[in-house]
Amino acid sequence: MNDTPSPDDGAPVKVRKAERTRQRILDTSLRLFREVGYEATTMRRIATEAEVSLGNAYYYFRSKDHLIQEYYGQAHREHLVACRSLLEEETDLRARLAGVLHAKIATSEPYHRFAGQLFRTAADPTSPLSPFSPESAPVRTEATELMARIVDESETRVPKVLRPELPNLLWLYLMGIILFWIHDASEGAERTHRLIERTVDIVVRLISLARLPVLRPLVQTAVSLTQELRQLAAPALPEASS
Length: 242
Description:
By secondary structure, the chain is an all-alpha fold. The chain has 11 helices and no strands.
């Protein structure tokens, strides 16, 4: 059961074995989280069902919180794969944003029940599992960068004053969609997909209207307010993308 790499394990076969062991621990933990819940799943049980020693389990993941952070990262990577073709081929902002949001819900659906259980812990603003926590910053940053790519590679012109703040606002919009999805019991998350279709139209329309000269003072005020709120919540909220 000793799969811990030794200091001189430089051969590719050893590296692949370590990667497989790490992935097996992660897959086992996610299965147990779904089956018995986050609180009831212990590192000892994860190690037993993954067929590794408890020491090895802690070698790869120092705690259950680290397993959840790895889950966040894995879920984000699956999302990127799911919307890769869309982002490479589509230039319409509305289609890009809607497609990315739909893909997020589709790739998250296998974890729906688990996400509801996790929400009870992640909703605590002091929890390291919160999407706003410093511990979640790497995935949050990558997700915000994805929002920036949606806009930057589209054919829509975004006002200069709004562009730096827009990815952060879109990330918060995504968080709202995910929160709705967590509570959505409809078949295939149909209500969430319908919400995406209806709200994306509003979001894209507001972005387009922001270019109107008459709305520039209002846009500037909204951007300044958003920046101020983020500074008050620092370091929890993501930094503005440029």
